[in-house]
Amino acid sequence: MPVITAIAKKHNLLVLEDSAQAHGAQTNNKKAGNWGDASGFSFYPGKNLGALGDAGAITTNDPDLVEVLKALRNYGSHEKYKNIMLGVNSRLDEIQAAMLGVKLKHLDKEAQARKKIADAYMRSIRNSHISLPLPYETDVLTFTEHAWHLFVVRSAHRDKLQQHLAENGVQTLIHYPIPPHQQEAYKNYDFSSRSFPVTELIHNEILSLPISPVMTHEQAMKVIEVCNSFSVSG
């Protein structure tokens, strides 16, 4: 992020952080949501910091942007019945805010629980057909604290691996099954003559292993055991 923000400053660009899955993550002792000009957080129930229903927030230190955002979330209005711009109904209701306020107090504890599961996977999954995330000791991650919203591995035999895990009682998911350029929403754009080989390679290999602050050590060991027993012979 320091490199990105330096480039942005040099070229007079804004940095907008997508922090939807990065609650509590940090780099160089600076948490996600503090690097850019603004940052978006998702509080969808499945996120590390989740509300009871759909919810989210934008953070910024720019006072002018704060006033714009306040209007945008309220039909473009600062004053009742007066709309200064086009906006939407995007106010966070009090019930969701109250729930998030309670859960926020437990975020660090739950983050450590997720980290313990991730550490166990990183230390103990040893299978030549399964590629793990970047190891902690790389320069890139020396001063980085991952949120571990997901624990994503890669395998050239992803579908067989997923089937093997399912047959042995381990549920997995693919985040996400369709890459953006293949979505029907973009059918009017001419992607036929373009190639996205890296995107499509990763898309065909990624698999999310179970990770949750309520997972037990025994459950994590089961995942590791099943991963290590995977083979593609025959």
Automatic annotation (TrEMBL):
Q: Tell me the InterPro entries matching this sequence.
A: DegT/StrS_aminotransferase (IPR000653), PyrdxlP-dep_Trfase (IPR015424), PyrdxlP-dep_Trfase_major (IPR015421), PyrdxlP-dep_Trfase_small (IPR015422)
- Identify the keywords attached in UniProt to this record, alphabetized: Pyridoxal phosphate
Q: Which Gene3D superfamilies match?
A: Aspartate Aminotransferase, domain 1 (3.90.1150.10), Type I PLP-dependent aspartate aminotransferase-like (Major domain) (3.40.640.10)
GO BP annotation list: polysaccharide biosynthetic process
Q: Which Pfam families match?
A: DegT_DnrJ_EryC1 (PF01041)
Q: Which family does it belong to?
A: Belongs to the DegT/DnrJ/EryC1 family.
Could you identify this protein by its name?
Uncharacterized protein
